[in-house]
Amino acid sequence: MAETTSSENSLHIRVLGGLILGAIAGTIINSTFLTPVDGVKPPPPEWLVFIQKYITDPIGQVFLRLLLMTVVPLVFASLALGVARLGGMGSLGRIGLKTFAYFFLTMTAAVVIGLTLVNLVKPGVGLPPAIQTQMAEQFGGKLNDTLSKPTTFGIQTFIDIVPRNPLQSMVNMEMLSVIFFALLVGIGITRLKAEHNQLMQNFLESVGELMVFIIGLAMKFAPFGVFALIFNTTANFGLDLLKNLATYVIVVIVGLGIQMFVVFPILLSSLGKMNPLTFFKLTRPVILTAFSTSSSNATLPTSIRTAEQDLKIPAPIAGFVLPLGATMNMNGTALFEGVTAVFLAQVFGIELTLTQQIIVVVMCVLTAVGAAGVPGGSIPLLALVLTTVGVQPGAIAIILGVDRLLDMCRTTLNVLGDMTAAVYINQSEGAALSKSPTS
Ligand code: ASP
After folding, report:
1. Pick the CATH number of 2-35+43-434 from 1.20.58, 1.10.3860, 2.60.40, 3.30.200
2. Cβ-count burial of 208 within 10 angstroms (0-12 exposed, 13-18 middle, 19+ buried)?
3. Which of 108, 162, 190, 396 has its CA 20 to 30 A from that of 24?
4. Which residue owns the Cα nearest ligand 1 atom 1?
């Protein structure tokens, strides 16, 4: 564990290095060779076209695909396993209900905070039309081959959640259908004979671990991938885009901060009957692990240990709420998705009605539930949210260069949200549970 942590830390420094170097290199090239003369942007020099076509663009794309390839099996395995475990604890049905209610309410609060901020600050408004067109041309449709097909939002969207053929849904990365199937499989597993039940749980756990291993390999490539992505972004658009992204980044981080330092303390004192300062002090190892790994899954062992040893939460509650939370409860991710969807809509000049924004809230909560607790786990699901606001999934490429930083921050909120849920469930159910012989 200690080894993993230190190598993860040095990886983060290298990723940050890749980000900074990519931004510097791209910005220098942009301001030296692509500064508009009399309002006209000069054509890019041949060597730059070559570098982008044969080096930085492929590296960025390959990095993205390495992450995307794990998403379907990981979401399926972790979700089905989470439900199977929940269903297996029949006597904990009420705890399940409370946990889900807490997850959904806090995620909804997070998205509402994010949408309020992004609508007030409007970080995506103000890009000159020429740059908008250029961005649309460059990024639009680029990720289409790896992301699910854009859909419209209507009654058919809900019908389509139920897959006709679950394998086909997996192939097409129709994540809501994959989630639906995973829920049924998870429930079904609890009805199997003990021997088969265990077999399925072991299998799903192994699939999850395999995917985490592959993501670990992909992440070794991250410093180069991030360098390439930010280099392309800055070389092509320079400071105008960076300035817009900076406001967007600040909006996301301020939103996460409000949820963490205003909403969580209120919930901790009222529902959890715990001093928020004590909570933040005791959960420091969890905060550090989440921030440095950008992965709810990777942080889970630390969360469980801290909950049991430091927060004195009984093992049945910690072992139930936290693994489920690592898969399903993602406050930071939901907020990030909401801000990003509205930000990109602003970039492309798409006005959103109140109804559309409410749909965004619902979609963000649903897709945050489906997002895998791994670095960049929410990126493919963000495509679904984008299609509901009429933005091409390929536009995700615009924010990928800064996603690593945001991922570190939102994962910290994701994991702390699980910890607050465990504190609440312990406060309301801990006493009853310790008396129950079935637990
Ligand atoms: N990295 C996040 C997590 O593990 C998921 C995401 O938003 O990409 O919680």
Report:
1. 1.10.3860
2. buried
3. 396
4. 375
